[in-house]
Structure formats: structure tokens, C-alpha cells
């Protein structure tokens, strides 16, 4: 039997019909968002048997908020202080310290639908190693709605066969985590995608459970939004993910720039506009499906979509080569 098959077999041990579940996450300066998350956790129709949290060195009241909640919490709470730990190191440490074999993973910045954990657990079967939950946006400001339009896919855009879950909504066994050698501690962004791909290579079986929904907010400012996309693309460059996708983006914008500088721009620019609108079609569709009430507000959202797309693309085009340079130097 190959090493890959061995790992998949070990990770597919007999599933207990009434499992005990450890919920793990990392935090860093989350004092303002934690109360809403903890309230959503307490309201779960199926509570985890424990919550293991790794704090990466918060300088606010994050740890105090957690410990205060833990005094009356409906689940056992373990807080591990590991100053300087990145998100991968924190998740690995939390899973190592977790007491149970079934591990749910989320982020502190989310609010979990009441049936989130119950849906994840119900989808786990003997022939399934990883349950991929879903995520949907929530917003308190105009910018959060605007950026969520670009960032977050609609449910009908997901192909369950190829979907790579975010670790804000995930269920794995400890053996599946081991088969992937844990989260990549050398990576600061896109670590969950690299973890997913490692589990895929190990031959583990995924199932998509759209009813397990974790809700989260996009960034609230343009600078924070651009920085987020820069970091996503830098993570792609560090890990060697999606080189063709990034190459296509560079080629598309290079062609657009060449068209603007062409000898007959008046003839070419309308075609460029149509091309960019086509390129942005799925984002317009998301904006329409998530449109606010009122015609003026909807029009404002739709007009802003191309600006959001272009800003995100420019941030990615800056971040990806930075990641590639890091990867080359690390070799």
C-alpha cells in the first residue's frame, strides 16, 4: 500500500455516532468581536465538548473576555497564550492540546449560525474525512457590504467536488490533520488552502455541507481591503498557488494598458470597457443578489463594483511577486 493510501486509511477510522468534538481557534486583539462570537457559540444547537483558544499575543482585553466568559460557559474552555504564534502555529497548538479526536475549526471574527456545528457533525460519515462548511457575509457598514460583494462567493457558484474550505468553517479528524502534517507554519496567509490541498494529496475525502454557515465581515476601509488582498496574493506567491490565474491577471491588465495607449484609442476603449464589464460579470451578479433596498443604493453599489475589482486586482498584482521573491529566497 502506498504512503498516500496508508495515511488515508489511518484517517478513516471507525466513526462514532455520538462523537465528542473539540472546537479550536486562534485570536489576536479580538476583544471587540469576541462577545458576538461567544454568544453565537453558546446558542449552538449542538455544543462542542470543549473550546481551545490560542492567543497570539493580544495587547487588549481578549484573554480577559475569554476567561470571563469561561467562568459560566456551557463548554469547557482552555486558553493558551503563545505570543508571536502565527495562525498556523496557533491552530496546530490548539489541535495538539485538544482532548478529542473530532476537531471543528473556526475564527474568532465570525458569528456562527445556530445549527453550524450540528450540520458539520451530521455530515460526517465513515467514508468522509473532512466536512467543508460554508460562510456568508454580514455587515454593519456600506464598505463592508461593498467589499463582501467581491470577496464572498454565492452558494450556487460552489462546485462541491472542487471546493476548498476556509478554516473558518471546517470539521476534520485528528488523523486527517496528521495526514496533512498539520497547518503549514511557514505560511502566514492562504494557510488553510495549503492545508486543504495537503489533505487532498493524502487521499482524504471531502464533503460540502452548505448548511454549516459561519458569518463574517469584510474589511471596513479601502486601505484595509487592499492590504488584505495584497496578503492573500503574497500567500499565493509564497506557496506557489495559482500561477496561471495570476499570470492571466497580469496579461489582462497589460492588454488593457496597451489598448489605452494604442494609436486609435477612441475605437478601442469601448471594447476595453465591454471586456472589463464581462470580466467583472460575476461580481456584478453578487452585488445584484446582495443589493440593498432602494434604487439609488443599488445603483451606487453596482457603480462601485468595477472600482472594488480593480483595487483588489492591483493589490494582488503587487502582492504575488513579493511572495514569489520570498519563495525563491527561502529555497
TrEMBL record:
Domain Glycosyltransferase 2-like: 22-135
InterPro entries named in the record: Glyco_trans_2-like, Nucleotide-diphossugar_trans
Residue ranges crossing the lipid bilayer per the database entry: 253-277
Superkingdom, natural source: Bacteria
Record-linked SUPFAM superfamilies: Nucleotide-diphospho-sugar transferases
UniProt KW keywords: Glycosyltransferase, Membrane, Transferase, Transmembrane, Transmembrane helix
Family: Belongs to the glycosyltransferase 2 family.
PANTHER family: POLY-BETA-1,6-N-ACETYL-D-GLUCOSAMINE SYNTHASE
Name the UniProt record assigns to this protein: Glycosyltransferase
Amino acid at each position: 500500500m502506498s504512503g498516500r493510501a496508508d495515511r488515508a486509511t489511518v484517517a478513516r477510522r471507525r466513526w462514532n455516532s455520538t462523537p465528542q468534538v473539540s472546537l479550536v481557534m486562534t485570536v489576536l486583539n479580538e476583544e471587540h468581536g469576541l462577545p458576538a462570537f461567544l454568544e453565537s457559540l453558546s446558542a449552538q444547537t449542538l455544543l462542542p465538548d470543549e473550546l481551545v483558544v490560542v492567543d497570539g499575543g493580544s495587547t487588549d482585553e481578549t484573554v480577559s473576555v475569554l476567561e470571563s466568559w469561561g467562568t459560566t460557559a456551557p463548554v469547557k474552555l482552555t486558553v493558551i497564550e503563545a505570543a508571536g504564534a502565527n495562525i498556523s502555529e496557533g491552530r496546530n497548538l490548539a489541535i495538539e492540546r485538544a482532548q478529542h479526536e473530532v476537531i471543528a475549526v473556526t475564527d474568532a471574527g465570525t458569528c456562527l449560525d445556530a445549527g453550524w456545528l450540528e450540520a458539520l457533525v451530521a455530515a460526517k460519515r465513515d467514508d468522509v474525512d473532512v466536512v467543508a462548511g460554508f460562510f456568508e457575509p454580514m455587515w454593519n457598514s456600506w464598505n463592508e457590504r461593498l467589499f463582501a460583494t467581491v470577496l464572498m462567493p454565492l452558494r450556487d457558484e460552489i462546485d462541491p467536488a472542487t471546493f476548498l474550505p476556509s478554516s473558518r468553517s471546517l470539521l476534520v479528524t485528528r488523523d486527517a490533520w496528521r495526514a496533512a502534517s498539520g497547518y503549514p507554519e511557514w505560511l502566514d496567509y492562504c494557510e488553510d488552502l495549503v492545508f486543504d490541498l495537503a489533505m487532498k494529496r493524502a487521499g482524504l475525502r471531502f464533503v460540502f455541507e452548505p448548511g454549516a454557515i459561519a458569518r463574517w465581515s469584510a474589511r471596513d476601509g479601502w486601505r484595509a481591503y487592499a492590504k488584505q488582498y495584497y496578503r492573500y496574493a503574497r500567500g499565493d506567491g509564497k506557496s506557489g498557488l495559482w500561477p496561471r490565474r495570476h499570470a492571466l491577471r497580469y496579461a489582462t491588465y497589460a492588454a488593457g494598458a496597451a489598448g489605452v495607449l494604442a494609436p486609435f484609442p477612441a475605437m478601442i476603449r469601448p471594447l476595453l470597457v465591454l471586456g472589463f464589464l464581462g470580466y467583472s460579470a460575476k461580481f456584478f451578479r453578487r452585488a445584484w443578489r446582495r443589493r440593498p433596498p432602494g434604487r439609488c443604493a443599488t445603483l451606487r453599489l453596482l457603480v462601485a463594483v468595477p472600482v472594488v475589482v480593480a483595487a483588489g486586482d492591483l493589490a494582488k498584482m503587487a502582492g504575488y511577486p513579493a511572495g514569489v521573491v520570498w519563495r525563491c529566497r527561502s529555497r
